[in-house]
Amino acid sequence: MQSLSKVWLFCVLLLVNTVASADLTIEITRGSDQALPIGVVPFAGSDGMPEDVAQIVQDDLERSGYFDPLERSAMFEQPNQSEDVQFDTWRSLDVRYLVVGRAEQTNGGFEIQFELMDISGQRRMIGETVTVRGNDLRGAAHYISDQIFEAITDIRGAFSTKIAYVTAQGIGDNMQFGLYVADADGRRSEQVLTSDEPIMSPAWSPDGTKLAYVSFETERPAIYIQDVATGQRIKATSFDGINGAPAWSPDGRRIAMSLSKDGQPEIYIMDVANRSVERITNNNSIDTEPAWSPDGRRLLFTSDRSGGPQLYQYSMGGGEAERLTFTGNYNARGRYSPDGEQIFLIHRSSNGYQVAKQDLSGNRLVVLSESTRDESPSVAPNGTMVIFATQQGNSGVLSAVSADGRSSFRLPSAQGDVRDPAWSPFLN
Amino acid sequence: MQLKPLARSLAAALSIVVIAGCSSTGGTQDGDSYGSQDGSTTGSSTSGTGTGSQYGSSSGSGSSSGQQADSRIPEVRTIYFDYDRDTIKSEYESVVMSHARYLRANPSAQVVLHGHTDERGTREYNMALGERRANAVERFLNIQGVSPSQMSVVSYGEERPAVNGQDESAYSQNRRVVFNY
């Protein structure tokens, strides 16, 4: 197989992040019993490098729930290229796949070679030389994880994506809010916005360059659109009443939102270019939390028109919205899966508020999470995981569960509450 | 595009008076209800709107309580709500009435009604529920003769809890409308 070379662009970070402790760490809370055993051998030559690339790859694969990595201490051989792999050795350790590699420092960066072996098939599946400019070893590791994940599962990896989230500290009139963007593993967090008024509902543009969010910095809610790289932003809406729940259309030209300027909250669609708004729903109840179907033809939203909050689907071009959820008396904040065939939502059961999913072809609702104070589900762009906010003790933390409910992990924060996660689209 | 200038000034220093021991006395009437889920909800669950209409005592009521009292912003500036309700409970009607008297007596006074919910449920849906509570107070004040131009509503949903905690004691102190002058 061919060896590709990938150049990693070195981004100069002008703004040094002063709140490094906003980084999130990972705790696997549930492993899947169907996870594939894999070995990720430490990369030769990586001693003394600023990051342990093989360890990052191993952590990525484990977090996905698809893999059960072999502990390093069990690796009594540590090959660094495919020619040196003794298949019998790894078969005796019940490993089905093996990643080997080596790293070296170069002028202005690093070069990492990795290879993926199918142990039972006794073959090399893929291999690549990754050129890293600057210090972006974590980015390179996530790229390698993406390649390995796709080669084995046939599903595009989402390790090189980002998450946006909101932090809050303090109580009552003395609160501090922050909007952050971090790698999908919670590391390398960067502050996007800070305020002593609430920040809510960050939403990624489909090209991953902008965030729309709600900020109360003028002591009332307004929707802003901010360029993540430059920090430049505009105030998109500040109508009387609620300006909430922004959601970008898949083509990036429109933003659905909830506005209460005409009475109770209704769904509107804003044209991003000229910021005109068109009203979509029209009734005497709460309509909020819109989400676009991947094909841009349908809008999912929460409405209490039947009494309590339930999810409805509106088809572009008119007609009455169709009620989708019928299990229990609280179903809200729906999000489509990337294939548009399922929805993820918050369902209130006798246990509390939990992340659930429902097939659009049927009404059966399945609870995915084991926590009971869940909010704000956001689906990975490859559909394998759902990140959401929940409570651990008295703190708000981010958590994620696989779309099949088999595995989960938490991203605890060192300080304050973390909430309102938004998983970015694919960025590469 | 419609950028509304922030024209409201918050003159008085904010002093939130926390009323201890939020009573579980049920509301005198039903507001919108969403299916009672826990024991704190009392009253029947008839759905309906127009919570203010039954408070329609004449606009002159209370004006006899004296000019002196009406020249000061009432001290109690927070009222509390039952779970999933926007009904003004009978025990807080006197508080709202005192603000109505003050606002009528001081036509230049401005109040921003901040609606809040407890943390349960989704954030944006709670934003809508907080707005319903503040709207209910605004309607009540309006029926009591307060000019709409003196009032505005901002919902904070669950974003600005008054107290931390995950029990009914904390939740009951967070389900509130605050009068901000």
UniProtKB/TrEMBL annotation, chain A:
UniProt-annotated location(s): Periplasm
SUPFAM superfamilies to which the protein is assigned, alphabetical: TolB, N-terminal domain (SSF52964), Tricorn protease N-terminal domain (SSF69304)
TM region(s), chain numbering: none
Main location: periplasm
Residue ranges occupied by any TolB N-terminal domain in the UniProt entry: 24-124
GO CC entries: periplasmic space
Biological-process GO terms, alphabetical: cell division; protein import
InterPro entries the record matches: 6-blade_b-propeller_TolB-like, Tol-Pal_TolB, TolB_N, WD40
Superkingdom of this protein's organism: Bacteria
Keywords for this protein: Cell cycle, Cell division, Periplasm, Signal
Signal sequence annotation: 1-22
Keyword Signal belongs to the record: yes
Subunit structure: The Tol-Pal system is composed of five core proteins: the inner membrane proteins TolA, TolQ and TolR, the periplasmic protein TolB and the outer membrane protein Pal. They form a network linking the inner and outer membranes and the peptidoglycan layer.
Function text: Part of the Tol-Pal system, which plays a role in outer membrane invagination during cell division and is important for maintaining outer membrane integrity.
Family membership noted in the UniProt record: Belongs to the TolB family.
Protein name listed in UniProt: Tol-Pal system protein TolB
From TrEMBL, chain B:
Protein name: Peptidoglycan-associated lipoprotein
PANTHER family xref list: LIPOPROTEIN YIAD-RELATED, STATOR ELEMENT OF FLAGELLAR MOTOR COMPLEX
Cell compartments where the protein resides: Cell outer membrane
PROSITE patterns: OMPA_1, OMPA_2, PROKAR_LIPOPROTEIN
Compositional bias per record (Low complexity), positions renumbered to this chain: 25-68
Function: Part of the Tol-Pal system, which plays a role in outer membrane invagination during cell division and is important for maintaining outer membrane integrity.
UniProt entry keywords in alphabetical sequence: Cell cycle, Cell division, Cell outer membrane, Lipoprotein, Membrane, Palmitate, Signal
GO cellular component labels: cell outer membrane
Membrane topology: Lipid-anchor
Coiled coil regions in record: none
Any Pfam family the entry gives: OmpA
Signal peptide start and end residues: 1-20
Gene Ontology biological process terms in this record: cell division
Chain segments carrying region Disordered: 25-71
DNA-binding is among the record's keywords: no
Organism field: Vreelandella maris
Subunit structure as annotated in this protein's UniProt entry: The Tol-Pal system is composed of five core proteins: the inner membrane proteins TolA, TolQ and TolR, the periplasmic protein TolB and the outer membrane protein Pal. They form a network linking the inner and outer membranes and the peptidoglycan layer.
Sequence ranges assigned to domain OmpA-like in this UniProt record: 68-181
InterPro entries according to UniProt: Bact_OuterMem_StrucFunc, OMP_bac, OmpA-like, OMPA-like_CS, OmpA-like_sf, Pal, Pal_lipo_C
Family under the similarity heading: Belongs to the Pal lipoprotein family.
